[in-house]
Amino acid sequence: MLRRVFGKKTVRCWVIKQLDTQMLHLCLLGRPDSRLKPEPLKEALRQQRFSGGISMGESGLLLNARLFDALVPEEDLELAHDGLAHWRGRFWVVSQVPQKCWTWEGRLVAERNHLNDQPLLVSREDVSAISRRAERASGLTDKAVFRSQDALEDPDKDIRYAIERGLKSRAEFAHRYEQDLAFAMRRSNERDEPVSDGHLECETSSRVESP
Which distant-in-sequence residues (6+ apart) come within 8 Å of 28 by Cβ? Predict the structure, then answer.
């Protein structure tokens, strides 16, 4: 009412969330929150020098201009048929941005609207980067080792020690067996008696020292 009394016309602008090569991700008409007069305000919008709040349509939301790629004076952009818009001397494909994406600070992607015929395209959040990171994380094949937080030793130390001890014991047993066999062979030659397993067992047992 006061603006009408003092002759100050309300400036409205098209709010473009994201500007692609051939597509406009378009929100709706908003009103810049500024004390500038209409013409200087429009020029600031055209040159992307406006910084401040944007009142979004009739929703009552006041959002910061930094959330959007472009703010276009209402008369500079014309919506055409078949989901196109004429701006800067050329036609652009229009994708409508729903309210839930107005504050999204990542990239948007457009997809066909399957709910009804209008609008033809609807924008949504591009979460492909997040999905790729999740897929890489789920593809990890390393096994998790659960240990106490204060465990400083190698968790496989005891296993390796047991294997080494077993191999060492086997080698020592084989060495002793060869020595006992050689001893039994010498005794057999001295007695001219053939060596049998039983004979070898008796000979080796007779050499075992009591603890």
Answer: 14, 15, 56, 57
Residue 107 and residue 97 in contact, taking contact as beta carbons nearer than 8 Å: no
Spatial distance between the Cα atoms of 67 and 56, rounded to a whole number of angstroms = 12
The owner of tokens 């990890």 is 140
Q: How many CB atoms lie within 10 A of CB 11?
A: 20
Residue 19 C-alpha from the chain's centroid: 25
The distance from CA 78 to its chain's CA centroid, rounded to whole angstroms, is 39
Sign for the CA dihedral angle at 28, 33, 35, 41 comes to negative
pLDDT in the model for residue 164: 66
How far apart CA 10 and CA 15 sit, in angstroms, is 16
Number of Cβ within a 10 Å radius of residue 17: 21
CA distance readout (Å), 142 to 10, 145, 156: 63, 9, 16
Whether 163 contacts 179, CB under 8 Å: no
Cβ 68 vs Cβ 16: under 8 Å: yes
Length of the chain: 211
DSSP-based three-state secondary structure for 120: coil
CA distance 70 to 184: 101
pLDDT along the chain (211 residues), means of 10: 58 97 96 95 96 93 97 96 93 96 96 83 89 61 52 53 62 69 69 52 47 44
